[in-house]
Amino acid sequence: MPLESTIICIDNSDFMRDGDFIPTRMQAQQDAVSLIFHAKTRSNPENNVGLLTLADGRVVTQLTSDVGKVFSKLHLLPIEGKIDFCKGIKVANLALKHRLGKNHRPRIVVFVGSPLEVDPNEFTKLAKRLKKEKISIDIVVFGEESSREKFEEFITVINGKENTNSHLICVASGANLPDALINTPIIQSEDGSGLPNGYSASAFAFGINPEDDPELAMALRISMEEQRRVQEAEIGRSTGTEGAQQNPPTNTGSSGTNEMDVTRLTEDEQIALAIQMSMTQAESANTNDVEMKEEPSTSTDIPSNTQQSTKTNEETQQNTDTFAASLNDPQFLRDVLRDLPGVDVDSEAVRAALEQVQQQQQQPKKDTEDNDDNDKSNATKKKKDEK
Amino acid sequence: MQHSCSRTCQHVDEISVGQWNLYMKIDKYNLQCYNEKHDGSGKDVFRAWDERLDRSKIVESDDEQELLFSIPFNGAVKMTGLCVIGENGPSHPNIVKLWSNVPELRFDNARGKAHQEIALTYDPSGTLAYQVSPSHFSRVTHLSLYFPSNFGDETTCIYYIGLRGEYLGVIKSNIVIATYEARPQLKDHKVDDLLTGNREIQ
User: Fold this and answer.
1) Do A102 and B104 make contact, defined as CB atoms within 8 angstroms?
2) Is B176 within a domain?
3) What region holds the PITH domain (chain B) (predicted)?
4) CB-closest option in B30, B39, B104 to A163
């Protein structure tokens, strides 16, 4: 854990208004800076960090180990102008030269998210100068591909033949900037310390402090990523059957809000059956959509549910195994339901319905068809009653 | 430094070994050599007098001929002599500039006036010892050696640097003005700055 004084150079040019990094590039940078600050201070509490803006080459915060000083200025940075890379680096060099900790190893971390306009000779001279003064530099290029080769050359000159203290990290547009930095050498020091396991850049992301229970945070993170992957795969496969997909959500949604204790059990059963039926049938997305959308607005009674489900059952019945399999997955349903407004995933009705689905998954298709026939006869009986 | 025995004698020159031992007081972890070609080679040139002729340990300049050594000591030192062993050729440095107690010295302020400037000549075996003036070097905690040029080669090569002198001891801390409190009162310790950060004990 060597003593280090780091100057972080922030790109505050007009290109930082871009929203390709959520929410804006500037915000992503701010999160990344806070991540780096905590990593440095954690690895050695006597490390110093300072802030500098590249657009005007101004030192925003002198080298300090006080988190408050850095953060108060960090969130007040103006976005204006274009970056002057060489001037910024020279000012950072000067700030490091006058640092209080004379024994600290100097380091510069630069964020570049706008096109680089620089004289190549001056650029190379700057690299040589940094090498002579033994200043390590880490360059993070985000959202900008044009200047990548220039920076690679820069880093090669600074590193020389044997050194590997300077790094170039490129982050593509749309990625999460702090998360992309976690696994880089900027955060991870040589002995692999860096941040503790399970640290998420968006701390408190799951409502728990990752420091209190890093294993839980890690587990949550992994399961979230898996979910995302599964969802993306499913949505990719079942684009043509979107209408049918909407059947189970709206069914359970409307029934979820309909808390009639007396008939709840039967309601759930029928919901489950409805889900099954809609799963076994084909698309005809538009007609289904129209029916479904009219459904919740008119009435949410149980008979109307079954009526409508029989209608959908009478439609053409194609059977794509993969689609059925994906919809049979209760976990997938859970996630789809979670995304709908007004649906409380944890409400008993929904949970019971999903359990039903799980149970019915184990039965062969024959049983479901039998149920369909029974339901059909029930429905027709009821229709007759109403008439 | 030369003694009068026959050429094949094994006598160790004990007087010189005893004198040229300031290398032991150098804070090697924080010793830095700027513009060296191989990282860490600058530390190897500061060694014992009887190892001075070891040709395997060398520091070579990387970009141009300059070499700058920033040498902190473990205490205060009184320096009286300097010895530089290089190649018997153009890569030998021709000037050395010395500064005492300027730890932030780097290449741009090394161009200015030094505390002492010494012109060097070829010395491949360590026979020459240059006198260091006592005016600036009687109480040194940090020494800076700057070799700006050599006798004509593209890079400068140095095999050994010897420092002669005496160790004065660890620097005593500054005078502390202390106030003793029988019972601390909060009103005596007002802190204005609300932004004082949290310091965790880890």
Assistant:
1) yes
2) no
3) 11-183
4) B39
Sheet with A48-53, edge to edge strand ranges: A58-64, A48-53, A4-10, A105-112, A136-142, A167-171
Tokens for A309? Answer: 């489900």
Question: Is the ipTM beyond the 0.90 threshold?
Answer: no
Domain that holds residue B133: 17-169
**Does the pLDDT of residue A209 top 60, yes or no?**
no
The reply to whether B21 touches chain A by the CB within 8 Å rule is: no
B202 lies within 8 A of chain A by CB: yes
Tokens linked to B65 = 């001929």
Q: What is the set of domains in chain A, with CATH numbers?
A: 14-82+91-119+128-144+162-171 (3.40.50.410)
Residue B16, min C-alpha distance to chain A (Å): 32
Rounded to whole angstroms, the Cα distance separating A256 from A346 reads 10
Judged by CB atoms within 8 Å, which residues 85-124 of B form the interface with A?
103-104, 106-107
Chain length of chain B: 202
- Nearest residue in chain B measured CA to CA from A64: B197
Tens-digit pLDDT profile for residues A330-342:
677 777 767 766 6
Q: Note whether residue B183 is domain-resident.
A: no
Residue B184 lies in a domain: no
Per-residue DSSP letters for A63-123? EES-HHHHHHHHTT----S---HHHHHHHHHHHHHT-S-TTSEEEEEEEE-S-----HHHH
**In this structure, what CATH number is given to the domain that contains residue B92?**
2.60.120.470
Domain count for chain B, please give it.
Answer: 1
* pTM of this prediction exceeds 0.90: no
Which of B33, B43, B63, B142 is the mutation pick for testing A, counting most A CBs within 10 A? Answer: B63
Flag if B62 and A45 touch (Cβ within 8 Å).
Answer: no
Judge whether B11 is closer than 8 Å to chain A, CB to CB. Answer: no
